[in-house]
Amino acid sequence: MKYQTTLLEDWIEIFYSRIGIHHPRQLDLHTIANRLGYSVIYRDISSRFYNDSLIIDERLSPQEQWQEFAHEVCHLERHAGNQLVMPQPFMELQEYQANLFAYHFCVPSFMLLKLPIPDSNKQATYFLANTFNVTLDFAEYRLELFRNRINSVTMVAERAKSWITNQS
What we know:
Layout: H1 7-18, H2 29-36, E1 39-43, E2 48-50, E3 53-57, H3 62-78, H4 88-106, H5 109-112, H6 121-132, H7 136-167
Parallel strand pairs: 1-3
Antiparallel strand pairs: 2-3
Helix pairs in contact: 3-4, 6-7
């Protein structure tokens, strides 16, 4: 069964291709920020974008900083408006989208599809965490998203095949 990508997954693959990122070893927040023309500053405050700089919370682990960076990239590259003055539901939508985006940005599907992911959830979680420099919790949830997508596409294909067979 061929994996069917979502619009978000397609956007991320095109985005990375455009800036010359093709392999997990290239996923580095400084490299990506530089290629986008942003500077990265570490401060003892929550992560945000300010005056052409991505401010990353220095109190976080490197893995959490990478995850925060991805969240902020979503706001920069896919959102518009000032959250301080937008309606609460719209701000909540943007935050939800940025959180989901971070999972796909830090652990891109087009890269996952090329890797030998272990069958065991525990081994696969450690593999993703180490390969993509994310926390174990983040890797575990990303693995769940990925496998759920595969299962849902397979289920839809099986239902369609069954329906076609029953119509004959």
